[in-house]
Write a structure and sequence with these properties.
Layout lengths: L1 E7 L2 E8 L1 E5 L14 E5 L5 E5 L3 E4 L3 E7 L5 E6 L2 E3 L13 E3 L1 H38 L17
Parallel strand pairs: 6-10
Antiparallel strand pairs: 1-2, 2-5, 3-4, 4-7, 6-9, 7-8
Length: 158
């Protein structure tokens, strides 16, 4: 695993640029009926994952998939990550993370949770304001004489 400090304009950030994953398919607990049992290696090519501003920890509850290619280029390996919290650098103490930077998927899910609440509150407020305006208008116009607009309602004079 390797992280790079690069910068976009003024802001520095960390990212995971390469992964090498060693696995043993002869381990029957995880690899049942493996076609070619033995030790294998898979790695990433041109990876840019877990991007985090410098000085912050990376946190993502959602499941992420990182695709790797085996060393013999015959197999594709998928690394599934979920509930990840990483502090790549600037560690001040053991098991103490700096302020977290949430992944885009978690940020989107948080917005999807709060947006209906906000819209519901706005709709409720609009309904209350409409009822108040109607009530005030009704009170102001209740004592005024209503003049019929069509002549059929007038009494015959005569």
């Amino acid at each position: 695993q390797e992280g790079h400090n690069t910068s976009r304009g003024q802001e520095a950030f960390w990212r995971l640029s390469r992964i090498q994953f060693a696995y043993d398919t002869s381990e029957r607990t995880y690899f049942k009926d493996a076609v070619s049992p033995g030790k294998h290696m898979a790695s990433s090519h041109r990876l840019s994952a877990l991007v985090t501003p410098a000085g912050k920890s990376y946190e993502c509850q959602a499941q992420q998939t990182i695709s790797l290619i085996s060393s013999d280029h015959q197999k594709f390996v998928q690394l599934l990550l979920s509930e990840v919290r990483i502090q790549p650098f600037d560690i001040t103490a053991d098991f103490v993370f700096s302020e977290e930077h949430k992944c885009p998927v978690d940020q989107r899910e948080q917005l999807e949770e709060t947006l209906p609440l906000i819209l519901g509150l706005i709709l409720g407020l609009v309904i209350v304001i409409t009822l108040c305006v109607y009530h005030i208008h009704h009170k102001l116009t209740a004592n005024q004489v209503q003049i019929p607009r069509d002549r059929s309602q007038y009494k015959h004079m005569g």
